[in-house]
Amino acid sequence: MAFRLKLVPDNTNIDFFRWQWLTFWGSVALVIASIILSAVVGLNFGIDFKGGTTIRTESTSSVDVGAYRAAVAPLGLGDVSITEVYDPTFGPDQHVAMLRIQAQEGDEAVTPEIITKVEQALKGVDPSITFPSVESVGPKVSGELIKTAILSVLAGVAAICFYIWLRFEWQFSVGAVVALIHDIALTIGIFSLFQIKFDLTIIAALLTILGYSINDTVVVFDRLRENLIKYKTRPLRDLCNLSVNETLSRTVMTSGTTLMALIALLIFGGDVIRGFVFAMTWGVIVGTYSSVYVAKNVVLMLGVKRDWGKKDDGPAGTQFATGK
Amino acid sequence: MLHIPLWKRIVIWGLCALGLLTALPNTFYTRVEKHNDAVTAAERAGFETEAQAADRALWPDWLPSGLVNLGLDLRGGAHLLAEVQVADVYKARMDGLWPEMRRALADARGEIGGIRRAPSDPSELRIQIEKPEAMAKAVEIANGLASNVVSLTGVGQKDIDVTVDGNQLVIRLSEAERAATDDRTLKQSLEIIRRRVDEVGTREPTIQRQGDNRILIQVPGIGSATELKELIGTTAQLTFHPVLGRDTDGNAIAKPGTVIFPSIDEDENGVFYTLDELPVVTGEDLVDARPDFDQNGRPAVSFRFNPTGARKFGDYTAANVGQLFAIVLDNEVISAPRINQHIPGGSGIITGSFSVESSTNLAVLLRAGALPAQMTFLEERTIGPELGQDSIDAGRIAAIVGTVAVVAFMIASYGLFGVFATIALGLNISMMFGLLSTIGATLTLPGIAGIVLTVGMAVDANVLIFERIREELKTAKGPARAIELGYEKAMSAIIDANITTFITALILFALGSGPVKGFAVTLVVGLVTSVFTAIFVTRTFVVLWFDRTRPKTITV
Question: Where would you tag: which of A257, B183, B391, B505 has the fewest CB atoms within 10 A of its CB?
Answer without folding.
Answer: B183
